[in-house]
Amino acid sequence: MNTKIGILFSTVDGQTLKICNELKEILVEKGNAVELFSIEDFDKKVTDYDKFIIGASIRYGKHNPKIIEFINENKLALQKTENAFFSVNLVARKPEKASPETNPYFIKFLKEINWIPKTSAVFAGKLDYQKYPFTDRLMIQLIMWMTKGPTNSKTKIEYTDWDKVKEFAVLINNI
Which residue among 63, 68, 148, 157 is the one 20 to 30 A from 104 at the CA level? Predict the structure, then answer.
């Protein structure tokens, strides 16, 4: 097969990168050549790849502006390439908000850009209060309190559904 796949990501606390590494591992096992780049380090062209995946996390209700800028600047190239986008956020820990059609951040994201990914997914992230700087911890605790999530400052929960990540990788492999 030897399809060339690029994966571009933006992460705040590392969970999106962890998901990207899992996608890469599965796709390489299936015979693809996969390169992984952070949004800060990408210096190639989308069209250098047969398939191009973008993964981005949410912080305070927004994706990294550099991801939005990248998509807006590369929209035509993305349309010429098999592409996929996934969002990582804690709201997706709730089953009713764990799909592109029901996740409010994903829906809002699509309204901000003028691009529809060919394949998309939403994954729940990881909550680790002790890893956050003090102000972030307070803000996230407030958000979690408002959304009836855990607020104990010692909470550490990985909500990511790894089976769902594997299914997404297989889907990308087969397109």
Answer: 157
- Give the residue from 74, 22, 17, 16 showing the smallest Cα distance to 49: 74
Of 136, 134, 135, 141, give the one whose Cα is nearest residue 155.
141
The C-alpha atoms of residue 21 and residue 19 are separated, in whole angstroms, by 5
Of 133, 109, 93, 101, residue with least CA distance to 10: 109
User: Rounded to two decimals, what is the model's pTM?
Assistant: 0.90
pLDDT tens digits, 68-121? 999 999 999 999 999 999 999 988 899 999 999 999 999 999 988 888 999 999
Cα distance between residue 36 and residue 19, in whole Å: 11
Closest Cα to residue 38, out of 70, 62, 61, 60?
70
pLDDT in tens, 127-172: 888 888 888 888 888 887 888 888 888 888 888 999 999 999 999 9
CA–CA separation, 36 vs 44, rounded Å? 11
Beta bridge partners of 120: 85
Contact 50, 77 (CB under 8 A): no
State which amino acid sits at residue 57.
S
